[in-house]
Specification:
alpha/beta; globular; Rossmann fold; 2 domains; Dimethylsulfoxide Reductase, domain 2; 13 helices
Length: 395
């Protein structure tokens, strides 16, 4: 990616960017001035006030968790000191994926494998133009791959309400509404097993086209189903389970894998770091013991049931907005790269990973840690710096 500095300390993305990168890099940094109860304060006094708030809390909850690897490590260290529970802003999607992974398992692949090996890629309800526009040039239709023959003969199918963008052509589009997706996947699984449903259409999609897709997937050397878990209609488990069963069936006579797209706002980073350090995914309370409760420790549930008396909200990317309704209030500390959308007792502005400070983030496929260099000197501390100062104050 190439950047050009602007007078407001933001950047214009001049090459290899996307719309989300353009918005993120264009944002000017906040002034490095914390606020306590709405008034400007020094960094030391803001940290001291936040430490007193967390020390007095009986059941603190750390949420948002939009940060990098070092920030998440520091959040877990502080949570252990406070006995706090942890949940990412995208916790509902993460929890749904965890439930499927824990109860039946799945076979997933990587971006590099898709780029170099896959010969038939099916995009399941993925909006490539708005959310994952670089996936086409980097993985689906790259300029080169390790096996050029597969790249030349690669087949791309879009299954869902949105067609593949022009850059992915030639690609076929099997149109179906998002609400019909579970039924379509169920019918596709039946076709692969030789048990065709006794219908002519699934929603607006003719069964004959679905049968042709099943035949093409059977013939593929390496089929890949690409989907965005966050875009699946809730409850997500039926669609996720069917996707796993499709891969199981295809692997009986060939090779196939899933590629989930996600990890937005540091979600994959938070999830993986938590698993490294504790052995559990998110929605975990740490302290004298580990307490993993994926339903009870969701941010919305915790505050709806009065299960927390203090909130630490982390948003180093400036994209998460306010905490869920009922979660913000007087007893809250927010660390953010954008001005808070909700009232809080303490607000400490922080830098954005890979913009205001060097960082590491986990890629969407969770197998590569990407090192990011600082692009400017804004004077803003990292989330890790703030949380370590908080932990030192509480000892």
């Amino acid at each position: 990616m190439q950047l050009a500095a602007r007078k407001d300390a933001g950047f214009d993305v001049t090459r290899n960017g996307c719309r989300r990168a353009q918005r993120g890099f264009a944002r000017a940094p906040l002034a490095p001035i914390p606020r306590v109860e709405g008034r400007e304060a020094s960094f030391a006094s803001a940290v001291s006030h936040a430490a007193r708030l967390l020390r007095a809390a009986r059941q603190p909850h750390f949420a948002g968790l939009g940060t990098d690897v070092d920030g998440m490590r520091a959040a877990i260290d502080l949570a252990e000191r406070c006995g706090a529970s942890l949940d990412h802003a995208h916790g509902e999607t993460l929890a749904a994926m965890n439930r499927v992974l824990q109860t039946r398992g799945w076979y997933a692949t990587t971006l590099a494998e898709v780029r170099n090996r896959a010969d038939h890629i099916v995009l399941i309800g993925v909006d490539l133009e708005q959310r994952y526009e670089n996936l086409v040039s980097r993985c689906l239709r790259p300029a080169a791959s390790l096996e050029s023959a597969r790249l030349e003969g690669r087949r791309i199918t879009a299954l869902g309400p949105r067609p593949a963008p022009a850059a992915a052509q030639p690609a076929e589009h099997l149109r179906c509404a998002q609400d019909d997706l579970v039924g379509v996947l169920h019918a596709l699984l039946g076709l692969l097993k030789g048990a065709a449903p006794d219908v002519r259409r699934i929603g607006s999609l003719p069964l004959t086209r679905l049968a042709a897709l099943a035949e093409a997937l059977r013939a593929a050397r390496y089929a890949t189903l690409v989907f965005a878990p966050g875009a699946l209609a809730a409850p997500r488990e039926p669609a996720l389970t069917l996707l796993c069963e499709l891969i199981d069936e295809l692997n009986r006579g060939g090779r196939a894998a899933l590629l989930p797209l996600g990890g937005d706002d540091g979600a994959q980073t938070a999830q993986s770091t938590c698993a490294w350090l504790t052995g559990y995914p998110l929605r975990l309370r740490v302290g004298t013991r580990l307490d993993y409760q994926p339903e009870a420790l969701s941010t919305a549930h915790v505050f709806a049931k009065g299960g927390a008396d203090a909130l630490l909200w982390i948003d180093a990317f400036g994209t998460l907005g306010a905490p869920p309704a009922g979660a913000s209030g007087a007893r809250s500390v927010m660390l953010g790269a954008a001005a808070p959308d909700a009232d809080c007792e303490v607000f400490i502005p922080v830098g954005t990973p890979g913009l205001d400070h060097a960082a590491q983030l986990l890629r969407t496929d969770a197998v590569v840690s990407l090192p990011l260099a600082a692009q400017r000197d804004s004077g803003l501390p990292s989330v890790a710096t703030v949380l370590r100062a908080l932990l030192a104050e509480m000892r």
